[in-house]
Amino acid sequence: MWGIVVELGTFCMINHIRMLLWDRDSRAYSYYVEVSGDQQHWERVVDYSDYHCRSWQYLYFAPRPVKFIRLVGTHNNGNRVFHVVCLEAKHTAKVQRLVGHFVAPKTNVATVEMSAIVTEGVSRTRHALINGDYLQYDWDSGYTCHQLRSGEIVVRLGQPYYLGSMRLLLWDLDDRTYSFYIEISTNRKDWEMIVDRRNDSIRSWQNFLFTPRPVVYIRIVGTRNTANEIFHCVHLECPTQDKNYLKKIAVMEEEREKKEKEKKTARTDDDNIASTSGSSLASGHAESPSTSTSSSQSVLRSIHWPQQTAAVVPLTPPALSPSDTPALPAPLIPAHSSSHNYEQNQPWNLSADASPHTSPSSRNNPSPNLSRSRSQSAEWEPVPPLVELDTRETL
User: Where is the composition biased (Basic and acidic residues) (predicted)?
Assistant: First the structure.
């Protein structure tokens, strides 16, 4: 078992955890939170393993029955120990909107009350940029600044928030203008520029809208001041609290949602048309299965298997009457004679006119002269057995 495990007195339906990380300096922690009912099956409800967090943590998730809560630290840039000072778990009806594990706030989270701090920048009052006072400022106090081309202003939020807008008040007690850019990060290593006003002349209140994303660090870098070499910021809000600007954002969101709905409707109509066309084609194919089957069978029969019009009747040799059957004489024992006469009396001995390269057809069909010579000599020559004659002529 690893991490910090808290066992509740009984099963409780909770959706909110409030936790205080040790915050006597500016160190950053990373962690994740899991809940369970039996300490066997754990469910991760918050995962900030790759994000820097500090001080009070405001965590929300879907309601569920919980008996055990486990806190697991994954990073501490001060040492290798994870420190938790306080933990609260409860169910609340005031649930923040969530995007994944991140809170998408509607109120300003760049405040001291929400654990934000200013890590870079110069001011006479600590955290003047995020203390919520944007009315009391003058030539000497009430703002945060840095030297052009050699500094920056960095604000660190208490935890990662899903943000898409911010508002900035530049020092405006005269007619000077500024140029600057803004970058954001979740670990202070990988920065992404969201606002670029380096080529513009800006003054007083400014609202910025960008693609929503998780944000922990906000870096403001001034590049020009028409009065001197100092860049001055009075107030920062994340997200913006300008009501007029929020109305414009709401109208833009409605238009965007309307367009997405129209696209979705058009896509659904296209899918319905495609499915209707597919079903009509399928019904057309299945309209007359017997006809298609019979036609395919007839095509196959006509191409591959010609129809047999008459049955094949095996041929049998004609029966011979007793009068037509020749009487076979008894086999004679040939007398001892010369080898020349014996070879002439053999049925397989060919005449002198026969060629040794006779074709198979000529061998199977002996010539009439040869047949007559055999019949004429049947009276005085011994006839070989009939079996030998049949075997010889079928070869």
Answer: 255-270
Tell which residue, 30, 40, 52, 32, has the closest CA to residue 1.
40
Asked if 178 and 263 touch (Cβ cutoff 8 Å), the reply is no
| 127, 222: one domain | yes
Task: Give the C-alpha distances (Å, rounded to integers) separating 311 from 5, 154, 307, 370.
Answer: 92, 102, 11, 38
Residues 122 and 206 in one domain: yes
Q: What is the CATH number of the domain that holds 29?
A: 2.60.120.260
Whether 19 is in a domain gets the answer yes
Cβ atoms of residues 49 and 31 within 8 Å = yes
For 17, the token pair is: 């955890």
Pick from 38, 61, 95: which residue ends a domain?
95
CB-neighbour burial class of residue 150 (10 A; exposed 0-12, middle 13-18, buried 19+): exposed
How far apart CA 146 and CA 120 sit, in angstroms, is 9
Q: Which residues, including other chains, have CB under 8 Å from residue 321's CB and lie 6 or more apart?
A: none
- Based on the fold, state whether residues 125 and 83 are members of the same structural domain: no
The answer to whether 200 and 179 have CB atoms below 8 angstroms apart is yes
> What is the pLDDT, as a whole number, of residue 314?
52
Residue 4 identity? I
- Co-location of 228 and 123 in the same domain: yes
Q: What is the pLDDT of residues 188-216, one digit of tens each?
A: 999 999 999 999 999 999 999 999 999 99
What are the DSSP calls for 317-348, one per residue?
PPPPPTTTSPPPPPPP-PPP--HHHHHHTSTT
Question: Is 131 in the same domain as 51?
Answer: no
Residues belonging to the chain? 395
Average pLDDT over residues 5-34: 95
226 inside domain: yes
**CB-based burial of residue 3 (10 Å sphere; 0-12 exposed, 13-18 middle, 19+ buried)?**
middle
| Spatial separation of the C-alpha atoms in residues 93 and 328, rounded to whole Å | 124
Asked whether 53 and 28 are in contact (CB, 8 A), the reply is yes
Q: How many CB atoms lie within 10 A of CB 110?
A: 26
Q: Which domain holds residue 170?
A: 117-247
Domain boundary among 214, 247, 280: 247
pLDDT digits (tens, 9 = 90+) for 354-394: 444 444 444 444 444 444 444 444 445 555 555 554 544 44
